[in-house]
Task: structure prediction
Amino acid sequence: MDKVMRGSLLALVALAGACKRSADSGAPAAPGAAYDVLLQGGWIVDGTGNPRWLGDVAIRGDRIAAMGRLAGAGARETLDVSGLVVAPGFIDMLGQSEIAVLIDNRVLSKVTQGITTEVTGEGGSVAPLTDRLVALDSAFMKKFSLAEDWRDLDGYFAHLARTGSTINLATFVGATQVRMAVIGFANRAATGPEQAHMEALVDTMMVQARSACRRP
Result:
């Protein structure tokens, strides 16, 4: 495991938010049980409000397979996390990694802080986009050999699915983004048709955002 990851403030259990206890959670593991990762001797804070407790966490694939005193358990990689806290991933409710995750899908600045889910798009969001807005971004995108091949959230999340990500990503539909897509940068009130267009865009983006949340 990378030293940067190992040296983080938390021993991270929630691998991209995919933590789910199995039926044997908390039960002792059979000697020689094969896990992918075994975190030994950490302070476990499970997010329920219960006091922390000292124990081990075994991970198989992207799921928590067992928790407790797992003496004799075997794993491909065993980490001594004594003195560290083992906790579910944190949620960053005001992030701006929607483009950064496409440039480097490890998103190390997030995961090394224990953040496994980010909500972005508070003002400007990754969609809706127009050809004009894409042209304004072209110099920055070309620097990282990144093509903005989407114009809505369906397109963006399809792109993200192709490149992958260590974090879960959710997005608001930014009011600034919607206005730029319809009106541009003019300092004036929207006309009736423009207002209707913006409302329709928000409705469409929200439907697409909900659809993305239901994808496996």
Helices lie at 3-6, 100-103, 108-111, 131-143, 153-163, 175-182, 192-213. DSSP finds seven helices and nine strands in the chain.
